[in-house]
Amino acid sequence: MSMTTRYGAGPNQIDAMDTTALRDTFMVEGLFTPGEIAFTYTHLDRMIVGGAVPLQSPLTFGDGSEVGTPFFFDAREMGIANLGQPGWIEIDGERHALANRDVLYVGRGAKEITLGSDEADAPARFYMNSVPAGADIPHRLIPKSEAKVITMGDAARSNVRSLAMYVHPKVAPSCLLLMGITDPAPGSLWNTMPPHLHERRMEAYCYFDLAAEDRVMHFMGRPDNTRHLVVANGDVVLSPAWSIHMGAGTGPYAFVWGMTGENQAYEDVDPVAIESLR
Ligand SMILES: O=C(O)C(=O)C[C@H](O)C(=O)CO
Ligand SMILES: [Zn+2]
């Protein structure tokens, strides 16, 4: 298991950043390495993002030395989305089967997590969002069929998309984690339109199901001072509360969004008018 750190930055700091500095600060690349678990500890509301691709041997974690508690989950909760082929996750020996796009919520107090793939040559790809938690909420498997799906957007503006809420008060409760998956409709390439800010929550986007030759252009920054990040399959964008977010792909893609902060009010967002962007 590896753990890297991202300290984040304030809105004025992006003026001095070149492309490499911007990417090093606001992106996490390389989370999905076959046979490994990789975590990045962000100082954006202390969300940890992670990836794991188990092959022949299952992968285990749960030690808390990197987070300063005896066990990883002593003061944390987590959502784990399977973005790959069928696999399974054991929480303290209790096994849950996860098909593609199923999500497992792991509540505070778990001791040991083991991640496995049904077939080593068609592995699961587990994506993880973990945030501090102050309550014990039961572990729960949320199959794709139980997610609450909302369709939004406008075909004339190429932004029709369906947004599936998994870890959400109306679907599966958590302490302060929100997690879901958004799929642009065929021919629709824009996500998160209109762009928005949510001053009370950070957000992490993990782009997936993107062809190797395609990229998503993810826009960030203050509305009057935007930048872009060129994102490949499996890359994560860290979106601070002060930053807008919206993106367009050069081909089909999907993304997992995860949020935490002061509240779980999905509607607590401030849309930003396109004509105000600079
Ligand atoms: O396409 C969208 O719109 C989204 O998926 C929006 C994200 O869920 C989001 O930014 C929530 O704040
Ligand atoms: Zn958002």
Automatic annotation (TrEMBL):
It holds the Pfam family KduI. GO terms for molecular function: 4-deoxy-L-threo-5-hexosulose-uronate ketol-isomerase activity; zinc ion binding. GO terms for biological process: D-galacturonate catabolic process; D-glucuronate catabolic process; pectin catabolic process. Its EC number is 5.3.1.17. Zn(2+) binds at residues 196, 198, 203, 245. InterPro entries: KduI, KduI/IolB_isomerase, KduI_N, RmlC-like_jellyroll, RmlC_Cupin_sf. Pathway: Glycan metabolism; pectin degradation; 2-dehydro-3-deoxy-D-gluconate from pectin: step 4/5. Its cofactor is Zn(2+). The keyword Zinc applies. Keywords: Isomerase, Metal-binding, Zinc. It is an enzyme of class 5 (isomerase). It catalyses: 5-dehydro-4-deoxy-D-glucuronate = 3-deoxy-D-glycero-2,5-hexodiulosonate. Binds 1 zinc ion per subunit. Catalyzes the isomerization of 5-dehydro-4-deoxy-D-glucuronate to 3-deoxy-D-glycero-2,5-hexodiulosonate. NCBIfam families: PRK00924.1 (NF002091). Belongs to the KduI family. This is 4-deoxy-L-threo-5-hexosulose-uronate ketol-isomerase. It comes from Salinicola corii. The lineage of its organism: Bacteria, Pseudomonadati, Pseudomonadota, Gammaproteobacteria, Oceanospirillales.
